[in-house]
Amino acid sequence: MAYLTESELKNKGFKHVGANVLISEDARIYNPELISIGDNTRIDDFCVVSGAVSFGRNVHIAPQCLVAGGEKGITFSDFSGLAYQCQVFAQSDDYSGQTLTNPTVPADYKAEKKAPVVLGRHVIVGAGSLIFPGVTIADGCSVGALSLVNRSTESWGIYVGNPAKRVKERDKGLLDLEQRYLSKG
Fold this sequence. Notes:
Elements: H1 6-11, E1 16-17, E2 22-23, E3 28-29, E4 35-37, E5 42-43, E6 48-50, E7 53-55, E8 60-61, E9 66-68, E10 74-76, E11 81-82, E12 87-89, E13 91-92, E14 113-114, E15 117-119, E16 124-125, E17 130-131, E18 136-137, E19 142-143, E20 148-149, E21 157-160, E22 165-169, H2 174-183
Parallel strand pairs: 1-4, 2-5, 3-6, 4-7, 5-8, 6-9, 7-10, 8-11, 9-12, 10-15, 11-16, 12-17, 15-18, 16-19, 17-20, 19-21
Antiparallel strand pairs: 13-14, 21-22
């Protein structure tokens, strides 16, 4: 995987870029002026990132993910990440049939749901999962592969399914590892 150089990152026009940021040459970035990227963050091949998005430190976005921040935005807190082919949306059309849909139609004829999405610290989302507008995945949660997250979660849980449901508590041992990692500077 080839990554953008430091100069190429600077020339993209991001709102903020931290140290040690790796973005694949094959990722697609739209509205870079609305995107902040923290230290040690990596965005892999064939990802699409658009709209208002804030990546904390040590965030990983695996190949073929879609991160659509729209107007309301998506926040990835420190040490969070998406596995392959996840999709996160901060806005969506109304699929009820009461309004028109898609970006070619003026807003007067649509009823989009627009709401921020937050992934807390140490959130990991399994491959092929989908996260809807308005969802907060609380600190420490993990989401199993192919899950649909349409409601906010409670911290330190493991969630799976369609719709995602809490199945058990997640171990907090990683917090000690985080402290050791951060103390090494």
